[in-house]
Amino acid sequence: MNSTPIEILETYWGFTSFKDSQEKIINAILEGRDVLALLPTGGGKSICFQVPAMAQDGICIVVSPLIALIQNQVSKLKDLGIKAIGLTGSMRFEELNNELDNCVYGGYKFLYISPERLGQELIQERIQQMNVTLLVIDEAHCISQWGHDFRPAYLKCSVLRELHPKVPFMALTATATSKVAADIVSTLDFIAPLIQKDSFSRKNIAFKVVKEEDKRYLLKQHCSKLNTSGIVYVRTRRLAEEISSYLISCGISTTYYHGGITEKEKKKKLEQWLENKTKIMVATNAFGMGIDKPDVALVIHYQIPDCLENYFQEAGRAGRDGAPAEAILITNKTDQEQVKKQFLDILPDVSFVKFVYNKLNNYLQIAYGESSGSTFRLNFNEFCATYGLNSLLTYNVLRILDRNSVLALSTSFARKVTVHFIAEKDVLFDYIAQNPSLSDLVKIVLRTYGGIFEFETLINTLLLSKKLNTSENNVIKGLEKLASEEIIAFKGSHSDLELTFLVPREDDSTINLFSKTIKEQNQLKESQVKQILAYTNNNRMCRSNQLLTYFGEIASSPCGICDVCTSPQNSKITSQNIKQQIRTLLASNPRNSRAIQQLLHLESDAVLIALQELLEDGKIKLDTKNQYHIS
Fold first, then answer.
1. Tens digits of per-residue pLDDT, 56-106?
2. Residues 6+ apart with CB under 8 A from 333
3. Distance from C-alpha of 531 to C-alpha of 460, rounded to nearest angstrom
4. Considering only CA atoms, which of 293, 289, 229 is closest in space to residue 259?
5. Which of 145, 204, 369, 420 could connect to 584 by a Cys-Cys bridge, CB 3.0–4.6 Å?
């Protein structure tokens, strides 16, 4: 193609200039250089690879971590009239083969692919046949074992360098420490790369930590006064549904979003929120990645995230239009203790990994030195029950063994059985009276799990079988019967886990090869939890500066708008704080004094004084319509 980058930007995206370092990154790619781009959430990462790809003949391959993210990006490109394909896990072989043919012969500009797909021989063979102009790794922190969301499948990304050694590589992330950035460059074998880091500072976002025992009341207060759009982040699917119901009961337009709802439901809920038909989205942490909604004015974390990287990325989904926004973390002492239990108590140490590996081999009757390449089915619940193992800790051991190529853990395994009572209580009691064989099962389920009439609830069928002194299979059959009679909504999956052993059994010697890594990973997680708790408890240093310091950036001055900066003991910067908020607001659009006051929720006298000082300093100007502009 002969168009220049700026012409392409204006033709397809409607912008007449690049943002921050976008142009520098694009020029480096066009010169054939490898690039690591560390840009904040909302920093326009996709433009950095989409524009240079459109400026050249050939196809751009983008590795992306989430199916929803792939679908969103492909849909946006198609809407712009750009030919793009996303390879998701649900494709049949014939469909996959046809799509790959389109990439080789059909003039497509973008191929989005998951890292897991890169392990397939067919995919690698066909990629080698393609005229590839650019290789892109999105959410590149996933490639680093020191990253907050390390995914072993991302290590397969390096195969792209082997398939197309002369094609430039680009890695992008919004959350990477210096250690993670170095790991990305090393793992992808970058050659004399441009490492471009824009400031992670989000001057229009007021980061706040509020300690409150009655968290629901505070949540309601913030959501009820919101005029535009907001996100509330929680850690569990059930809590997402509970909080959504609570806000709806308070008269606030709300819905929820998590991995347990159907694709059709997800699409509907997302569209309603994007179109502002729903004001608040209550969601688990995967929500929002790749979704460009500019008018999110409020992001609330109802629970403490597991690390500052996740918190900063999620909070950064606020204020992408440049208007003032808030990112509020609501917490209390109980919440802080729960964080330690949830994220630290599930970390298996080396001795426990060795113990589980040994028991696993014994359970499957694998002899010392045998079973390399052998595949077994394992009833996970029965295995844990046989040796009295904590199921969550044990499953994390299997993930460690999978990550370190001792065994391959079936990705289709999902140890989940959920139940939701849908019959009215009087109907249920009549049913029990007429079906006494199911009476004990119903009663045990109701006694064991609260809220099961209100929400879809995850249950442990092995635990129920022990309480009923019967087999787990009988429990499943009973639940299936109740579902067929429309007493419950039931979702079940078998408890068999498929394991393929990749190396011969050598007991402790097998684990010793990566025992140091296990210790380092545990230390990393402990450090991350310690850092997020330190952030919540540090009420002396500007919140924005705390975050910037964590990511290795030196802040020039306090933000002036966070809870620390605006606290009574820091009231001396209140005037500066107001002036900074006004300038941030005017950067997006000119406004009159009344609009400024209403948008900033400030007293009129304080706003008028700040406006007068800004005028005197030449920072702003007033037009004939009595609207203020940035000078």
1. 999 999 998 877 778 878 988 999 999 999 987 667 778 888 889 989 988
2. none
3. 34
4. 289
5. 204
Asked whether the CA dihedral 557, 562, 563, 569 is positive or negative, the reply is: positive
**203-206-212 Cα angle (round to 5):** 160
Give the CA distances from residue 197 to residues 25, 290, 521, 590, in Å, rounded to whole numbers and listed in that order: 10, 20, 26, 30
pLDDT in tens, 562-578: 999 888 766 554 667 78
pLDDT of residue 590: 87
What is this structure's pTM? 0.72
Phi-psi map region of 531: left, alpha, beta (phi>0 left; psi -120 to 50 alpha): alpha
In angstroms, the CA 315 to CA 321 distance is: 14
523 three-class SS:
helix
Assess contact for 133 and 58: CB atoms under 8 A. yes
Please calculate the CA angle 234-238-241 and round it to the nearest 5 degrees: 80
The token pair at 52 is 């240079």
Closest by CA position to 188, among listed 141, 236, 248, 232: 141
Domain 568-630 has CATH 3.90.550.10: no
H-helix or E-strand containing 135?
strand 132-137
